[in-house]
């Protein structure tokens, strides 16, 4: 199988590409820098300008769309919000245009989504058919709703579309775990806000294994929660990480008002609660290597 990946130079894309190669597949990346040195075949594209190498889509059997600006880089100014939204929509619009054309053999699109679609839901257990947050009340939910709609439109062309709603990805290479681990290492770790908000997480290896399975097996289609079976509260995650790293938690909780003052609207990333179920993924036969938080963290940070 030939797999074309957008956002392939990111943390998830890099590991996914390695696993696909290990499984005997071919991988190519869509990039704004096609002249850059790479282990993989590169095709150029510029979603903002609406340009793409004409050979890119005809190369592929499947497309994995991971493109999107990080929601955690900088305060959410009006300009930044537009960048976050259009970095997700422009690429899918461009793919839709290309996939409308004859002469390709793409049969599936796996397009990243996020559990932010559910909004702040306390301790309610959330399934794929749970109501989503009202777009007018929640910026991230609005972004993800539009993101999924753009991917679903590609399904109208006859492709199998899979939408993994990805939780907090645990990896020492990037994402939310890195700054949390840094504060714990230097004795400044503390639960955020009440600490009771749920953080539905998934180990980077489990996520990428899941994405490979979604590509390889045609029984996967539609929306799936890409999270571990055991969501943890912010307090549980912080305390477990401190135990694994053998560091004390000296500081009290970081108050919610302080986070809101420092981060503005972006504070909803760390203060919002999403307790998300993995039942649908497990019913498809997927088995996690790291279903439990402590073992997941120990895989990155050696105890002692």
UniProtKB/TrEMBL annotation:
Coiled coil: none annotated. Residues 3-225 form the NAD-dependent epimerase/dehydratase domain. Gene3D superfamilies: NAD(P)-binding Rossmann-like Domain (3.40.50.720). It comes from the Bacteria. Residues 254-298 form the DUF1731 domain. PANTHER family: EPIMERASE FAMILY PROTEIN SDR39U1, SUGAR NUCLEOTIDE EPIMERASE RELATED. Belongs to the NAD(P)-dependent epimerase/dehydratase family. SDR39U1 subfamily. This is TIGR01777 family protein. It comes from Hymenobacter polaris.
């Amino acid at each position: 199988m030939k797999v074309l990946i957008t956002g392939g130079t990111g943390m998830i894309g890099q590991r996914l590409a390695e696993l696909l190669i290990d499984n005997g597949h071919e991988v190519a990346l869509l990039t704004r820098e096609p002249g850059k040195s790479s282990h993989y075949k590169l095709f150029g594209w510029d979603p903002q300008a609406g340009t793409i190498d004409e050979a890119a889509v005809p190369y592929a059997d499947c497309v994995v769309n991971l493109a999107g600006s990080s929601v955690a880089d900088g305060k959410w100014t009006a300009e930044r919000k537009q960048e976050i939204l259009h970095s997700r929509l422009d690429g899918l619009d461009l793919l839709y245009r290309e996939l409308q054309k004859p002469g390709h053999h793409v049969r599936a699109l796996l397009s990243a989504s996020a559990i932010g679609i559910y909004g702040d839901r306390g301790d309610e257990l959330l399934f794929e058919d749970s109501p989503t947050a009202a777009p007018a009340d929640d910026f991230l939910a609005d972004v993800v709703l539009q993101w999924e709609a753009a991917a679903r439109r590609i399904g109208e062309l006859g492709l199998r579309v899979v939408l993994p709603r990805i939780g907090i990805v645990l990896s020492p290479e990037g994402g939310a775990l890195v700054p949390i681990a840094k504060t714990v290492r230097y004795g400044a770790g503390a639960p955020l806000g009440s600490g009771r908000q749920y953080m539905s997480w998934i180990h980077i290896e489990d996520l990428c294994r899941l994405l490979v399975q979604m590509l390889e097996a045609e029984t996967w289609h539609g929306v799936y929660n890409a999270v571990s079976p055991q969501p943890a509260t912010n307090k549980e995650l912080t305390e477990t990480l401190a135990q694994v790293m053998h560091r004390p938690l000296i500081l009290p909780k970081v108050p919610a008002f302080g986070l809101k003052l420092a981060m503005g609207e972006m504070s909803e990333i760390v203060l919002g609660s999403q307790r998300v179920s993995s039942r649908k993924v497990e019913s498809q036969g997927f088995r996690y290597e790291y279903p439990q938080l402590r073992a997941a963290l120990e895989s990155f940070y050696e105890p002692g």
